[in-house]
Predict the 3D structure of the following.
Amino acid sequence: MQFGLLGAKLGHSISPQIHQEVFRQLGITAGYELIEVPGEQLAAKIKELRKTYRGLNVTIPHKVAVMESLDVIAPEAQAIGAVNTVFFNGRQAEGYNTDYFGFARLLEHAELVPQGKDVCVLGTGGASRAILQCVRDMQAKQITVISRAVEKAPEDIRAQYTVRTYEDLRGMDGDLLINCTPVGMFPATDASPVDHAVMERFSAAVDIIYNPAETRFMQLARQQGKPAVNGLFMLVAQAVAADEIWLDRKLDAELIADVTEKMRQLL
């Protein structure tokens, strides 16, 4: 069986190590590769890979565009408007979103459940869509989306959520600040999407970036004595959920924590 991660730039990814560890623990022989492809070649690449691959993960910047190349899209992925997992099931290419599951497990694990809280989400890309749906379903009291330009945010996000700019953010406060942008990701690790003054106005921070293990965004929160977590647990949880789809079997929840700890040692 052959699997892979589809994205534009994947040098930072530890997805192969995660899936190989899961396969090892399950006693399965399978391959998992990084597949870099520019946007203009995405459709052709999907057509090529479906001949020999069983499944794919999809990351920046293809989570929305990949949907055009699929035959079936699961209801949760359709509602979110993004796909991060593809299953080549016979002649059909099926799209799913396991980011939703992964982020929910992260919030529960970190004891940062958003029920009844004011949540602010940075970014409007494919990952942001799953996070927004997740915190809404977990009954956040208020959800605000931050975009560099309100008018450039996707129309469906503007229709469902309050969208503000980074300048507006400087006058806002809330319970949970979530970074869904790539700002601060390896190798540009000195960057943060917000500064110290903005972080002061929020009670806790979640960065879905996992490399580096502690981003500048997280450092700003911890310097102020606030809880801050990265996206590693989410990454592993969504990977395990993808493996469940590809292998058509339920996996032990303890596997997530065990593989996360092993991956933490790599970072």
Notes: The two ends are 27 Å apart (CA to CA). The mean pLDDT is 95. The chain has two domains: 2-97+233-264, 101-230. Residues 147 and 165 are 5 Å apart (CA to CA).
